[in-house]
Amino acid sequence: MLERERDNRLLNAQAVTVAIAHEIRQPLTAIVTNADTALRWLGRTPPDHDEAREALTCIKEDGYRASDVFEGIRALFGRSGVERYPIDLNRIVLSVTDSLKEELDRHGVVTHYELTTELSPVIGHGIQLREVVFNLVNNAVEAMVSTTSESRVLRLRTAVCGRNEIAVSVQDSGPGIDPRQLEKAFNAFVSTKAHGTGLGLAICRMIVEGHGGRLTASSDGKSGALFQFVLPIGSTDRAAGSP
């Protein structure tokens, strides 16, 4: 029993450490990319100060996001309750794709939006929910980049489910996932990527379920994958507690 307790503590410590490394890598990569972009614009003759200024503004925003990641991880693995407030899921989706615009353009990914207008807000932790969408979109882009197809389409949808839930869907046109492996994709430390940590989707599911929702995946193993999370509208008993 003592050995099992020790192993569980080590696993939790490893999960926190890898989660921080996994989440912080994204804004740091964006910072480096935008820094390179700013240098290119400044190196032109004459320098394009407006474009350089825009890239530097992105660096500033990603710096703030890196700080937010630590707050989100602390809230996720902490024991105390965290502050939750009304969240506009459409705004989060657009914010994520805006932050990944250069990545999407570089890989020739066409983004199609089907966002339901005037969505009711969900009550939640904005930083954590943004990281869920960011991870799902980033995974979709990586899945499509691994193919040689020139048709790389990212579909993002928000919709009302019944009367009390909102669904957010992220669908790619990549190679898909073997249906027999779908459920395992959410297991901690399981990854199909050569350098993956196997924690991204596990953390996403933890966040969504902590908000009283559910995260699912579907694929025929040939024509892309669809990840969808559903959250309750308005406040819930679980939303008032810790994730």
Q: Beta-strand percentage?
A: 15-25%
Number of helices: 6
Number of strands: 7
CATH topology of the largest domain: Heat Shock Protein 90
Overall average pLDDT:
80
* Alpha-beta classification: alpha+beta
- How many structural domains in the coordinates? 2
| Largest sheet data | 5 strands, mixed
The CATH class label of the largest domain is: Alpha Beta
What is the end-to-end distance? 27 Å
Radius of gyration: 19 Å
Proper CATH architecture of the largest domain: 2-Layer Sandwich
Characterize the quaternary organization of these chains: single chain
Q: What proportion of the residues is helical, as a percent range?
A: 40-55%
Unreliable spans = 236-243
Strand order of the largest sheet: 2-4-5-7-6
Would you identify the CATH H-level superfamily of the largest domain? Answer: Histidine kinase-like ATPase, C-terminal domain
Order of helices and strands: HHEHHEEHEEHEE
Q: What general form does the structure show?
A: globular
Structure notes:
The chain is α+β, with helices and mostly antiparallel strands and about 240 residues long. It folds into two domains: about 1-75, Signal transduction histidine kinase, dimerisation/phosphotransfer (DHp) domain (Helix Hairpins); about 85-240, 2-Layer Sandwich (Heat Shock Protein 90). It contains six helices and seven strands. It has helices at about 1-40, 50-75, 90-100, 100-105, 125-145, 200-210; strands at about 85, 110-115, 120-125, 150-160, 165-170, 215-220, 225-230. The strands form two sheets. A five-stranded mixed sheet has the order 2-4-5-7-6. A two-stranded antiparallel ribbon has the order 1-3. Strand 6 and strand 7 (about 225-230) form a beta hairpin. Helix 3 packs across helix 5 and helix 5 (about 125-145) packs antiparallel against helix 6 (about 200-210). The radius of gyration is 19 Å and the shape is globular. The protein starts with a helix and ends in an 11-residue tail after the last strand.
